[in-house]
Design a protein that fits this description.
The chain is mostly helical. It has one domain: Up-down Bundle (Four Helix Bundle (Hemerythrin (Met), subunit A)), CATH 1.20.120.80. The protein is 77% helix and 0% strand. The longest helix is centred in the first third of the chain and has 34 residues. It is elongated and about 60 Å long.
């Protein structure tokens, strides 16, 4: 397909999708760098080898996977012109995103209760990596929640339809990406860490 073909609106849509994918690829490279550094650092003598992630991280993983499903249900409802169902699923997705962040901070609280802090005399390199990776991901979930709030606002203003879904699709793609990214990070930290 020739990217120079089509209406101005179609070209702008393709450009926005391409920019999103460039951003996603750069985020993938960043997280791959951090997880690679995690692996290299795991050979240090002060590395914790018997640490297991708290249960709050398991719960947050389930929550974020469910949120991807609810966002997909919202998108499918929009395609069918079911505005009330779209609203419901968008609001459920928003709630699940907030619950995800709450559980992440509960996990941090459990780590601190075990005596491990991000910095200071009770910190170590293992925990610093876990905090860094999880906190940077949380920042991206917050960005996803902001996108979701924009989508909810635009949906209530009836700016989306089955034939006009660009902003909705961009937000959905980003949300699925941060969900898949967390599943990867969780599995990495759970089995490699």
């Amino acid at each position: 397909m020739d990217l120079t073909q089509g209406t101005t609106e179609e070209k702008h849509g393709r450009a926005k999708k391409m920019m999103l994918w460039f951003g996603i690829i750069s985020l993938i490279m960043s997280f791959m760098g951090w997880t690679s550094a995690f692996i290299v650092s795991s050979s240090r003598p002060d590395w914790l080898t018997d640490f297991r992630l708290p249960n709050a991280f398991i719960i947050s993983t389930v929550v974020i996977v469910v949120s991807s499903i609810t966002f997909l249900l919202a998108k499918n409802a929009l395609k069918k012109g079911q505005n009330k169902a779209t609203s419901l699923w968008l609001l459920v997705t928003l709630a699940l995103g907030i619950i995800f962040i709450y559980n992440q901070f509960s996990g941090f609280r459990q780590i601190i209760d075990l005596g491990y802090n991000f910095t200071g005399p009770t910190s170590n390199v293992t925990m610093s990596y876990i905090y860094l990776i999880a906190l940077v991901h949380i920042l991206h979930v917050v960005a996803g929640l902001i996108c979701l709030l924009v989508v909810i606002y635009n949906h209530f203003k009836q700016r989306y339809s089955a034939t006009n879904m660009l902003g909705f699709e961009l937000a959905t793609t980003f949300w699925h990406f941060i969900d898949i990214l967390w599943v990867y990070l969780f599995l990495f930290l759970y089995f490699v860490g």
